[in-house]
């Protein structure tokens, strides 16, 4: 803002008919100027003083406004939800087009129509940006509750994998996950912010199934998860084709028998 004021003052300085009457007061010159004149004829020294004072006031007002805004909202930066959505959508598009390896904050900012600082203030690294792009774009796991926990678990797996594998987001999700093995700076936040909340939903379903007596007590929850979800994801990876519902249901029915009590 101050820089803008300085540029405006410089422009006005060029436009003024500067005269060497430093002893004439600014107020007097204003009174002697035509009423419709935007820029009265004033002394150069007075005009420089006026510009300086204006800039000081503007800077002071900026700091006061910023301080007041911070006080009103507490710590943290203001967030514009529309900007967030635009940036995350741009990140998803670029991940789909070029993959994580070629993703850059500059490209995302350009696609979203914002400046790079706007992106960096929200997500300091491209790893953070990619993770939050997945969180924003991929629907969370929501467990059904029909009274049959194992049936609900199987339906959750079938619905999630078939929908994701048939969606343009599927390749984005697989691509980001594939990068985790060689990029711990990506893998750690992906597990913490994207995978763990989804895993918690699955674990709750498994524990509900144990309470119902429908899941063997000797199988850890993460093993049950792998037995139910794993074959569907492996089928998707190995064939490179979307998983259809009939195939998914056949796979989870086999897993269901493996985790049921009495099965060895």
UniProtKB/TrEMBL annotation:
The keyword Transport does not apply. The keyword Electron transport does not apply. Gene3D superfamilies: Homeodomain-like (1.10.10.60), Tetracycline Repressor, domain 2 (1.10.357.10). Residues 104-123 bind DNA. Pfam families: TetR_C_11, TetR_N. Residues 81-141 form the HTH tetR-type domain. It comes from the Bacteria. InterPro entries: DNA-bd_HTH_TetR-type_CS (IPR023772), Homeodomain-like_sf (IPR009057), HTH-type_TetR-like_transc_reg (IPR050109), HTH_TetR (IPR001647), Tet_transcr_reg_TetR-rel_C_sf (IPR036271), TetR_C (IPR011075). Keywords: DNA-binding, Transcription, Transcription regulation. This is HTH tetR-type domain-containing protein. It comes from Saccharopolyspora erythraea.
């Amino acid at each position: 803002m101050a820089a803008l004021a300085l540029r405006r003052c410089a422009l006005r300085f060029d436009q003024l008919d500067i005269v060497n009457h430093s002893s004439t007061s600014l107020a007097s010159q204003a009174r002697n100027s035509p009423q419709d004149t935007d820029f009265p004829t004033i002394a150069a020294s007075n005009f420089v003083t006026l510009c300086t004072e204006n800039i000081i006031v503007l800077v002071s007002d900026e700091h006061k406004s910023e301080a007041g805004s911070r006080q009103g909202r507490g710590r943290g930066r203001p967030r514009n939800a529309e900007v967030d959505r635009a940036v995350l959508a741009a990140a998803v598009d670029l991940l789909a087009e070029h993959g994580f390896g070629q993703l850059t904050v500059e490209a995302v900012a350009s696609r979203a129509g914002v400046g790079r600082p706007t992106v960096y203030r929200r997500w300091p690294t491209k790893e953070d940006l990619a993770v939050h792009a997945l969180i924003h774009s991929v629907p969370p796991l929501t467990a059904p509750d029909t009274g049959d926990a194992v049936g609900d678990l199987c339906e959750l797996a079938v619905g999630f994998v078939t929908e994701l594998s048939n969606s343009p987001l599927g390749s984005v999700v697989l691509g980001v996950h594939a990068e985790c093995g060689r990029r711990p700076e990506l893998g750690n936040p992906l597990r913490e912010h994207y995978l763990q909340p989804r895993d918690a939903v699955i674990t709750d379903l498994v524990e509900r199934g144990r309470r119902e007596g429908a899941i063997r007590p000797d199988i850890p929850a993460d093993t049950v998860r792998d037995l139910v979800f794993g074959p569907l994801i492996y089928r998707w990876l190995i064939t490179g084709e979307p998983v259809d519902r009939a195939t998914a249901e056949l796979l989870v029915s086999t897993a269901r028998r493996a985790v049921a009590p009495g099965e060895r």
